[in-house]
């Protein structure tokens, strides 16, 4: 009985994410989106996605894709006046929800944020964007600061 428990725990631990991710899209693209259930969302490309995860994955392949509205495209009562939401923000939502499980690689190319601070790489920059959604890539970085 105890042996069974130990084996079960060992299996559970082995499926937890241990990989490092370069950025939001490398994380999102590694997701099993079927785990996010079926909550249809309409893309600005006219495609209905099963959930935000699938729309975010599509965005990561084609950055033109935005969320048009919740619900299937052309569904009754779909809010045509809703302002489209950038697919990058949807992808960031998924990344930020799992922040504690995400390990950023060490090193890489540092990037400059709109807060004029350097970040070690895109992954650490994306983690900072979870705390400040106004943050974007910028210029004029003066001092090294992670
Ligand atoms: C969030 O980012 C914006 C844009 O770079 C910046 O102006 C602002 O100071 C940041 N806010 C915080 C709390 O760091």
TrEMBL record:
Source organism superkingdom: Eukaryota
Pfam families the UniProt entry points to: Kazal_2
Name the UniProt record assigns to this protein: Kazal-like domain-containing protein
InterPro entries, alphabetized: Kazal_dom, Kazal_dom_sf, Prot_Inhib_GrowthFact_Antg
A GO term for molecular function: serine-type endopeptidase inhibitor activity
Signal peptide positions (record): 1-22
Organism this protein belongs to: Dreissena polymorpha
PROSITE patterns named among the record's database cross-references: KAZAL_2
GO biological process: cell differentiation
Domain Kazal-like, first and last residues per copy: 19-75
One GO term describing the cellular component: extracellular region
Keywords: Disulfide bond, Protease inhibitor, Serine protease inhibitor, Signal
Residues spanning the membrane: none
């Amino acid at each position: 009985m105890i042996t069974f428990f130990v084996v079960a725990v060992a299996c559970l631990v082995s499926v937890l994410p241990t990989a490092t991710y370069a950025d939001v899209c490398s994380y999102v693209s590694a997701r099993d989106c079927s785990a996010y259930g079926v909550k249809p969302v309409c893309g600005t490309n006219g495609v209905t996605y099963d959930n935000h995860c699938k729309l975010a994955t599509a965005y990561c392949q084609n950055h033109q894709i935005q969320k048009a509205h919740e619900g299937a495209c052309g569904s009754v009562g779909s809010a045509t006046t809703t302002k489209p939401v950038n697919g990058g923000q949807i992808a960031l939502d998924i990344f930020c929800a799992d922040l504690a499980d995400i390990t950023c690689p060490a090193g890489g190319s540092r990037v400059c944020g709109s807060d004029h601070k350097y970040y070690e790489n895109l992954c650490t920059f994306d983690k900072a964007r979870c705390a400040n959604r106004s943050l974007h890539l910028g210029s004029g970085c003066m001092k090294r600061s992670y």
